[in-house]
Amino acid sequence: MNAPQAPQSGNVPYMTFVLENARWLSAGYLLAVFSGFGQTFFISLSGGDLRAEFGLSHGDLGLVYMLATLGSALTLPYVGKSLDYFPVRRIAAVVMIGLALCCLAMAASSSVWMVALTFYGLRLCGQGMMTHTSITAAGRWFSAQRGRALSLAILGFPTAEALFPICFVALTNVVGWRTAWAVSGGVLFLAALPVMMVLLAKDRVPSAREIASAKPEGRQWTRAEAIRDPRFWAVSFGVNAPAFIGTSIFFHQVYLVELRGWTLELFASSFLVMAFGVVGASLVIGPLIDRFSARQLLPFTLVPIASACLVLVLYHAPASAFIFMALIGISNGFNSTLVGALWPEVYGTRHMGAIRAIAFSVMVFASAAGPGLVGWLIDIGVAFDLQVLGMALYCLVFCVVLFVTARAYRSELQT
Predict the structure, then answer these.
(1) Which domain holds residue 52?
(2) Does 4 fall in a domain?
(3) Residue 1 confidence (pLDDT)
(4) For the chain, N or C: smaller number of CB within 10 Å?
(5) Residues 312, 388: contact at Cβ < 8 Å?
(6) 8 found inside a domain
(7) In the chain, how many domains are there?
(8) Is 413 in contact with 295 (CB distance < 8 Å)?
(9) Which are the contacts of 200, defined by CB distance < 8 A and separation ≥ 6?
(10) Three-state DSSP class for residue 101
(11) How many CB atoms lie within 10 A of CB 278?
């Protein structure tokens, strides 16, 4: 094939690994960065404008968003497995063009139906396929240093979370929300896409030395086998709790800001704190995964998000926004890196595009259900703090479930 011989990165110093693999690490990182245009934290910044322009309640807009995201979750298993058959470069090009067109469609939206279709495209291309491509490619490109590679690729998410909300709010204040969406599409077309095509001009294949020095993968599961494994679903319903919780709260951030008496600018600035949390957690957890394995660290992944929910419920001062977002960042960095390494670790890499597509569709489903459910509960008068407390309790229960599941994975490896 055209793929070059991979650098020998079995047991090399961290900076040597980064420099030798800068091309592919940068590609994974930038795919994560530009997925931000289809993430809830970005889309929800226009929530107030969309409700005002189209006469929608919190529940109405949440329902539209939920249905669109559910549609993308149902589509993802079919399009996500394309990574098992086509080069990453081709998939990335198609997805980035699609995401750019969706940004332009949002700028031109003239009806609720058009908004719904645009939501669907943004979620499928941005949150779904851009994220799926970034994490799957990083997991497949690297064997012995998979944890490090994933921790670096995932830094793209906090970069977007730190920069996109502040820039979008500032741009909206100057030129309006529609023009701000048009500018977003232009950035994808004119800047992101050309850079990505240069970086992905060469694919990467792990060297024989890397494969030999990596932890043995053992059995190579097919997608059909994985989805019949009860542990797959136990992990999926646990590790995707942050997707449900984060999406629910970010989508209704305007309501939260009004409820607490904060300003939208204050909450947007707290995304920078979240970004630092993601960076710190990602850089710590990556080497720990390479040393101990994702299975051993699995039971601890929901502790930060449970703590974040309790802070939001118990502490209402403006400072709580920053504490909450710091914990959300730690949760996202921990959870994303760990899950990215866990699936290839326990199910192998041969069918990882198809298996991870199912896992991502569960994540997208969780993020779809949140805004609609929380919006409906807001409309019928259920206290927001009570809802968040319920989210915290769910996480604590699944800490126990993940502990049991992790033991089952480790027992299988030892037999």
Answers:
(1) 14-414
(2) no
(3) 42
(4) C
(5) yes
(6) no
(7) 1
(8) yes
(9) 27, 87, 88, 89, 92
(10) helix
(11) 29
CB-based contacts of 380: which residues, under 8 Å, 6+ apart?
A: none
The three-state secondary structure class of 181 is: helix
| Residue 5: count of CB within 10 angstroms of its CB | 9
What's the rounded Cα separation, in Å, for the pair 415 and 413? 6
Structure tokens belonging to residue 250: 């970010």
Find residue 205's DSSP bridge partners.
5
Q: Are 151 and 286 in contact, with CB atoms under 8 Å apart?
A: yes
| Angle of CA points 25, 27, 33, to nearest 5° | 105
DSSP E strands in 214-327: the ranges are: none
pLDDT of residue 118: 95
Length of the chain: 415
Q: What's the CA gap between 80 and 310, in Å, rounded?
A: 35
Which letter does DSSP use for residue 124 in this model? Answer: I
| Each residue's pLDDT tens digit, 129-164 | 998 898 888 877 776 677 778 878 888 888 888 788
Do the Cβ atoms of 377 and 387 come closer than 8 Å? Answer: yes
d(CA 129, CA 39): 11
Residue 270 inside a domain? The answer is yes
334 vs 336: CA distance, rounded Å:
6
Nearest CA to 307 out of 341, 339, 331 is that of 331
Residue numbers in the chain where pLDDT is lower than 50: 1-3, 5, 8-10
**What pTM did the predictor assign?**
0.71
